[in-house]
Amino acid sequence: MLAIGYVIAASLFLSVLYALYGLAVGHKLHLKIGVIASFTFAGLLAMWPPSEKLKLGIDLSGGTILVYEAVKENLTSNFNMDELISALKHRVDPQGIKEIPIRKIGSNRLEIILPADEDVDEVKRLLTDVGALEFRILANRKHDQAATERALGPNGRARPPARYKWARLGEVASGTNPTFTDTTITDLSQDWKKNRYAGIDIELTGKDASGNEQTIPVKIDRNTTNEIFLVNSHGLRSISAYRIDYNPSSIQAGDPNNPRPADPIIREDRIGPGLVERSILVNIDRQDVTGRYLSRAYATQDERLQPAVGFVFKREGARKFGQLTREHLPEEGDAFKYQLAILLDNLVMSAPSINSEIRESGIIEGGGQGFRPKEVDYLIRILQEGSLPASLNPNPLQEEKVGPTLGEDTIAKGVRALWVSMLVVPIFMVIYYRFAGVVAVFALVLNMILLIGSMAFMQSTFSLPGLAGLALTIGMAVDANVLVFERMREEKERGANLAQQIRNGFNRAWVTIFDSHVTNLLSSLVLWFVGTEEVKGFALTMIIGMLWNLFTAVFVSRVIFEYFYQRGWIKNLTMMKLMDKSNFDFISPRHYCMAVSSILIILGLIATYLRGQSMYNIDFTGGTLVTIRLNEQDPDVESLSDSGRSNFVRDKAGVLPDVTVESLKVGQAKTFNRFNIRTTDQNPNRVKDTILKAFGKSLERVTMTYGPSKPIPTAAAAAPTDATKTAVVDRFADGRQYELKFNTITFNGSLPPAQVVSTIFANDVLAKDNIANPTSRFEIVGAKRGEDPKTMILRTDLEPDVAEKELKTLAASLQDNRDMLFERITNFGGTVASETRTLALIATVASWLIIIAYLWFRFKSLIYGLAAVLAVVHDVLFTLGAVAASYWVAQIPGIREFLLIEPFKIDLPMIAAFLTLIGFSVNDTIVIFDRIRELKGKTPHLTMKMLNDAINQTLSRTILTSFTAWLVVFILYIMGGEGLHGFAFALVVGFLSGTYSTIYIASPILIDWIGSHPDAAKADKEFVATR
Prior knowledge:
Layout: H1 2-25, H2 28-46, H3 50-53, E1 55-56, H4 58-61, E2 63-69, H5 81-92, E3 102-105, E4 109-115, H6 120-128, E5 133-138, H7 145-151, E6 164-176, E7 179-180, E8 184-186, E9 201-207, E10 213-223, E11 227-230, E12 238-246, E13 266-272, E14 275-283, E15 294-301, E16 307-313, H8 315-326, E17 340-344, E18 347-350, E19 361-364, H9 373-385, E20 398-402, H10 408-433, H11 435-457, E21 461-462, H12 464-493, H13 498-530, H14 533-566, H15 590-611, H16 618-621, E22 623-629, H17 642-653, E23 660-665, E24 674-679, H18 684-695, E25 704-706, E26 710-711, E27 736-742, H19 753-766, E28 778-782, E29 791-796, H20 800-816, E30 822-828, H21 834-859, H22 862-889, H23 895-899, H24 908-936, H25 944-953, H26 955-975, H27 981-1010, H28 1014-1025
Parallel strand pairs: 1-21
Antiparallel strand pairs: 2-4, 2-20, 3-4, 5-14, 5-17, 6-12, 6-14, 7-8, 8-11, 9-10, 9-12, 10-11, 13-14, 15-16, 16-19, 17-18, 20-23, 22-24, 22-30, 23-24, 25-27, 26-27, 27-29, 28-29
Helix pairs in contact: 1-2, 2-11, 10-11, 10-12, 10-26, 11-12, 11-14, 12-13, 12-14, 12-26, 13-14, 13-21, 13-24, 15-22, 19-20, 21-22, 22-24, 22-27, 24-25, 24-27, 26-27
């Protein structure tokens, strides 16, 4: 794989040299070939190796589920979880190309599902770093003496003086006798933030090879929660201690024996074993300059030429920042200077001295060695996106691996359909257009290389519907080639020679190709700028696809034709012919067609209204989430593979509406035996009953065993190294303790396992046996770090015989408790919030307005733009009605099986299908409009004859391009399985509607709205009479 990568890179280098050679000698053809080859190898290099560069979506490869909880203490009364989710989506996936769903769970929790190839730690940081930027004046001993004394007092950390607060300056981590290798230091007692210490030094104290004691600094490459990885070997034979001084701003406390007026106020607090946190006192001034006033952030260098982050304020921010610095200019002839602290999430990043008034801009320094390049990119991203409306707890409540959300059989069907659909169009083009078809296939292959390479470069995620979209690109990309080839055919029929056929074919088709591509580009740009992340991903793919299609279908194809012609390798262009010149009257029955369309659309809207919310997929409605465990000993389960278990759960859960299943694996577990079941049913109790009935004995029950009773050690007898590691509880000093072992402790997603067992023991066991004050007669504590997590300790003052009797009852109660069969059961929100839907609709309407404006400009009449958009609206509403009506059609025996109809629902892939339909419909309409403009020439009036001639002359092209695109989606529909069924259905119906509306809706509107001159109307009557 690596060798192939080198070959591609070398080929790219040679291609660039060849292009430069062509430019130097003035040989245009060599230059063009060099450019084409350079782009080809660049695209291949961007996607090589595919196993690393092409990232598959959750539906194909699985990923990681993270569940976070918002920090309750920081929530305001008007907190809106949807706003937080929207901000997180924009931060994690600003282009909308990674397909990372974020759902609301309950009132203050959210769930994120990351594709397998995503950097989980990077995403965690993006989720939990609020990104709050502040500019604060450091408190000093000259002006803040009274506040200093109170702040340094015993209660000063929790309650600093008014108008002051403690900001984090850094921390000191230290320990003794760590485990080590040549390049690692491990201390299992620590819980550091991942990569917090990357790039700084660790001081190691120990003995070298000669046995001499010494302390040496070694640079840290990265760190985990309890392990340090060094850049180089430390060279010590033994290590007795280590110390890490994390201080991004490099601010130091003054000499306590000789304090100076400008010294900062710093305090140190031990917050854990071997961890001391440093805080610095800052003044909350009335200007309150924060990140909300930033205009932009950018990469730059500080005065030591180290990497830094620059920032520029908006006008209001510049005014406030200028006032803040003007109020704190140097005093005592520059002997006393204020320091301006730049805080990010309350951590001091730098604190330069204020020498003069500063207004528009500044920089954030990264300490003595500056920021690492990756850190610069991260900070810019955080600052540009702005701070989050609320903060999440840094540690996720849940982190689990999840298998592909689509079944193995569904994936296999989808992939098979994709291959067939991608091959059928090239085969058709070669058979129909012969040599020209081969050229078109080469352009298509190059288009795919460039498009996939671009998406790989942008780290896009490829889901099954996304891959279907790429297959559809092939079907739609041939449109430009067909336009050119049909123009070549017309030139040949006029008697033009081969050179003229090539030249005129491309030149005359260019206007139509340009108009259709620019229209789609403009509407996609509007979707990109106005739309949500879900819409942006589609828009970006469309933009890139349109640009590469212009390059391959026009530039590359023309170069190939010219090259083969100049070499004398082609003498004649032979092509099959769909039909001779047609002379159909498409315009006369327009009013009947419009009436039928109106009736069908109204019926479709009624069907949409009747289906209501049930027409929307779980992406929009949310629903109920249940996590279950399979019983490994059940004969129906024990012999199944991972994929077999997933299929088993899907089959059993299929009795619920609109089900998706995710297989789960925690840590180093080897098999998937836990599953998330999601359904649109909003009633948790009904869902629970349905699952219990469907799965029965296949669900794993909670089992508990307990060991013999042991005396609880007294405070005097307890030793720090006691094997039980249990704390001494004086009120049970004369009682007994039991070790409880469980087969699983993941039986409640929201409460600690020990609390769940305690509640059941008190309420369902002791209270029913009439034991007074049951909650005061025992305590259950969970396992500590390093112990078996499935073990708990029960301490009680009950008599041993009574205690053991009650424990037997507890074990039976746990096994029979049906709620314990579910790890969690909760409602969750859709990935598309209501505000998001509104914004997506606004973006779509805005894209229609830009289509109207452009066609108005190009065709010198507003009616052309309105006609095109009305045809688009017709297609969208017709397809929407078909989706709605599928619910009733699917209930008709025979029809359901013959048409493969099911009660389709609107989900995110179907939204992409609707957006694709808009582009297809406009494209089709513009081809006819351009021919109308050509036939109309300078004639001031339109006639029915012009419209009919335009449609008839482009009919062959309309049929061919519509057929190739429709054939792709039809194959996906009949072969693609459930993963592509709804997406393909919308396009199968939509493409038929789009072809119909171009001919019978858009074009006739021109004659009805623009009208004909009396002389032209007379000609129309004569034209119709000759039919």
